[in-house]
Structure formats: C-alpha cells, structure tokens
Amino acid sequence: MGKKGGKKLQAFCVNKIRPIVRVPLQNKLGSPNSMRKNDKNEEKDQEISEKIVDETEKMKVIGRKIMVVVDSSSEARVALQWTLTHTVQSNDTIVLLYVTKFTNNKGKQEGEKVMPQVTPKIYEQLYSMKKTCQSRWPEVLVEVKVIEGKEKGPTIVEEARKQGISLLVLGQKKRSTTWQLLLIWAGGSGLGLGLGLGLVEYCIQNATCMALAVRKKSKKVGGYLITTKRQKDFWLLA
Questions:
Q1: Helix, strand or coil for residue 116?
Q2: Alpha carbon distance 174, 171 (integer Å)
Q3: Which of 101, 97, 47 is nearest to 69 (CA)?
Q4: Residue 178: per-residue pLDDT
Q5: In the chain, is it the N or the C terminus that has fewer CB atoms within a 10 Å radius of its CB?
Q6: Which residues pair with 145 in a beta bridge?
C-alpha cells in the first residue's frame, strides 16, 4: 500500500509540475521564429558597426583632411572629441570650421578683404579647441577656418569641397519625436532647411566626401550615436 501510494503521489506531483514549468519557459524564450529574428537583428547591427569602423579606418591609411564643424555648443565639443579619439592619425590635417552669418559689405572698396565678424569670445573658444587638438595629437596640423555664409548648410558643403576634405564631422542635437517626424516629412523636398531642421541632414546628403553626425548616447549609457547617409542614429559603443 505504501509503495503504491508513493507512486501515485510521485505521478501526481510530476503531472502538476510539468505544465507550470513549460509555460514560463515559452514566455521567456519566445518562439523559434522570434529567436531567429533577434539573431538576424544582432547580425545586422554587427555588420553596420563593422562598416562604420571600416570606413573610418580607411581614412587612417593615408593622411587626409578632416573637417569638424565647430561652434560654442556642447554638441560641437562632442563631435571634436569623437574625431580625436576615433579617426585622427598622425599624418592627418584637422580643419576646425566656424560659419558666421553673412554681413552686408556695402561701402567697401572693390577687392578689399573683409574679415568675418566674430566676437573675441568665439575666437577664444576656437583656439581653445585648436589647443585641445594639438595636445591630443602634437604631430597633427590643425587649421582654424572662419567663413561667412547666407545659409550654413550649403556654405559648409562648398567649403569642404573646395578644401578637398575626406571626412566631414558635425555635432548633432537630440530631436524630439515630433521634430523627427517633421524632418522625415520634409526630407528630400528642400523643406527641411526651411523648417530649421535640416542643417546636419543637408550636409550628410549633399557633401561630396563622407559626412557623419555624432552625439553621445546619454549620460548613463556610454558610446555615441552615429548618423551617416545610409544609417541613422546607430549606436557605436567604442
């Protein structure tokens, strides 16, 4: 009696446990299809990461000109920091480009050179950035270029073309979801610049060289978000 009762009790326990164990395993692991989808997404992210790294690594083989668009914003400092740590090599040249608003030069004699109007504070910030570059890369040539332009985007693209720039780097602000939707709606139609949204996007899409935008992921999470012509806000941990 005791043995039979023990077997019945054992069988009862197993039958009760089995369905309880199976359900959470299915919930946690998901279906085979969802697992395959996650694996494919991870492989795709890895491929994109390697491609971005490969493109920047190519810049390191031969000394080339790297242009960083700078101003007094924290986004510009992040772009410069990323450039110094991820792209620059000893045989490169860094061009720090600052674009100021176009001024009316009426009354000036023909042929007379007119210096762009920039405050002493801006010049101080620009040369502070130059010192940062020289401190990190003493052997690298660093140039500071200040130019005027009616529209900042086209001015940057044209200056990069004239100087034979290999890589154009811009800092990028975090946009709200509403602004991102407006940008998508205006994309490709030229309306982006009219909305004041498309400076970075304009440069990326129209530059004759490789162009990318950089911003930090967040204060708590490391890495950078990189935007290129083919990829938007890709998270680069390195």
A1: coil
A2: 10
A3: 97
A4: 59
A5: N
A6: 97
